[in-house]
Amino acid sequence: MTKLSLKDLDLKGKTVVMRVDFNVPIKDGVIGDDNRIRQALPSINHVIEAGGKLVLLSHLGRPKGERKPEFSLKPVAGHLQSLVSCNVHFGEDCIGDQARKAVEAAKAGEIVVLENVRFHPEETKNDPGFSKQLAEHGDIFVNDAFGSSHRAHSSVAGITEHLQPAAAGYLLQKEIEYLQNSVENPKRPFVAVLGGAKVSDKIGVIENLITKVNTIIIGGGMTYTFYKAQGLPIGNSLLEEDKVELAGTLLEKAKSNNVNIMLPVDSIVGREFKEDTETKTVAQDGIEDGWMAMDIGPKSAELFGDEIKDAKTVIWNGPMGVFEMDAFAKGTFAVAGAMSTATENGAITIIGGGDSASAIKKAGLEDKVSHVSTGGGASLEYLEGIELPGIASLTDK
Ligand code: AMP
After folding, report:
1. Among 71, 112, 201, 333, which is least packed by CB within 10 angstroms?
2. Sign, Cα dihedral of 123, 126, 127, 131
3. Is 36 part of the annotated catalytic residue set?
4. Which domains does the chain have, with CATH numbers?
5. Which one of 322, 323, 324, 383 would you pick to mutate in the ligand 1 pocket, going by the greatest count of ligand atoms within 8 A of its CB?
6. Where does ATP bind (predicted)?
């Protein structure tokens, strides 16, 4: 990475404003999965141990520019206190007097968590005045919020116009290094596994990876738009009618690039979109009217698994079926298992966040892959070859 890193900076006596992604699930003031907070600890502890004062900025949920108590970061500050050995203060706002007083009250070697930046509508507009107010809290900016780095928002990007040096935190650096190395310098065979509901979300990724990978495995709801492009029957399965032509073009493009595109050879179909519906397994030409495909079938799971196990680099984004329902989760778990075996065989295996990250956790295999990204949207945009605003705006080395 050619951007300034947290480790390059002398932090003693400095106030560091750090954007983190503390967008964790909270119910009735209790934090569910605190993974995102824990992932920021290496950067947080580094600043504290180096004698800096740390001001943390984050968003939580989508309060749409209003102060809504259910989206307060106060419980997060309380939770962070249980994970670090220094004092954690909380500021009831991220700008203005309340923020300033909270920052002043903290000493070097202590932390201040400021209230949700999205309580102000200016945040998502990347408003220069708001960015400047956030910048006034410190001497150095650090972005460690990979999951928000695809957003050109004030606390992610705009702030760097007013606060330099702007450096990458350890989590951001780790995320980028995994993605960058795998895409630009992959050990081969390099396999991309793409699933999820919509072709439209993955078009950019397919187009970018088609010149880089050896194999693209396609599963999930988007399969059936590709089926349609090949003239196969799809019954009531998910279809993006306006993407059928494009799906056909992508299949052609893969062929001319010598990229192996694997689509499911069988599917598990159900009568209705519900857990206890009647189901059966059918071949790729066997999806009848009145049935919808909701998971890849066992033969596909085996074929996909074999391809993944033999790979040396694998990136996975998107479930193979409606994995939230047990009846349609087998294909996704088979891919999760194959990812784990590939890792044991020496492959670099990356989970691109979002639903695939939930699936690998549900399978209990999150420690058996090389990297689970904390940012679904951000890693997808990175894989599309798009420059992320939260990274582009950091100081060059
Ligand atoms: P995405 O957000 O595009 O990654 O899509 C994830 C969602 O796709 C999950 O909620 C899955 O339940 C859903 N999904 C995966 N396969 C299918 C399918 N065959 N039919 C309908 N939904 C699906």
Report:
1. 201
2. positive
3. yes
4. 6-172 (3.40.50.1260), 186-383 (3.40.50.1260)
5. 322
6. 202, 324, 353-356
